[in-house]
Every structure is written in structure tokens, then in C-alpha cells.
Amino acid sequence: MSRGDQRERDRAKKLAKEAEKGTKKEGNPLQRNESDAAALEAKRAAKAAAAAANAGSNHLIGNKEPVKPKKIVKKSDNFDDLLASGLDAGKKKRAK
Fold first, then answer.
1. In this predicted model, what pLDDT tens digit does every residue of 41-78 receive, in sequence order?
2. Where are the alpha helices (DSSP H) in 1-96?
3. What is the pTM assigned to this prediction?
4. Buried b (16+ CB within 10 A) or exposed e, 45-73
5. In 3D, which of 13, 10, 31 has the Cα closest to residue 21?
6. What are phi and psi of 4, to 5 degrees?
7. For residue 57, which phi and psi values (nearest 5 degrees)?
8. How many angstroms separate the CA atoms of 92 and 96, rounded?
């Protein structure tokens, strides 16, 4: 089968999609980097200010201590229990 003008249609479709998407960044890369750095610094400053404001209001939240996992108390197995545990491991239970 011949492709005909399918390649050209696909190329035109791809170009239209890329033009719609607007992937080209405008401006000088150095200026973009500087503006991005300034925006990031402003974001960090705002986050630090929010953290400082929330630090004083911990009494409203409740100042709870972290939850500690429960200690698992393992009962000590005696010698007879250890021997008996291996006996039933491979057997199937019979129906009465």
C-alpha cells in the first residue's frame, strides 16, 4: 500500500498541534533563569513566613507527641509447643 499524501497531512497536523500548544519559550534564556530564580526565592520566603506564622499556633492544634508503635510481647514457647507446632504443619484437616 502506498502512503500517498498521508505523511504531509501528518506533518501539517503535528505542526498545527505544536503551534496550538505553544511550546516555544520567549525571551533570553538568561533572563528566564533570573526570573525563575526570583520567583522561586519569593515562593521560599512565603513558605518560610507561613511556617513562622504557624509555629506560634501549635497550641491550637494540640502539640501531640508522635505515636509510638506498640511493643509486641512474644510469649515464650516451651519445648513441647515447639515440637508440636512442626507435627501439624504438613497435614490436612479431615472432615468428621
1. 999 999 999 888 877 665 555 567 788 888 887 777 67
2. 6-21, 29-55, 58-61, 79-87
3. 0.36
4. eeeeeeeeeeeeeeeeeeeeeeeeeeeee
5. 13
6. 65, -135
7. -100, 20
8. 13
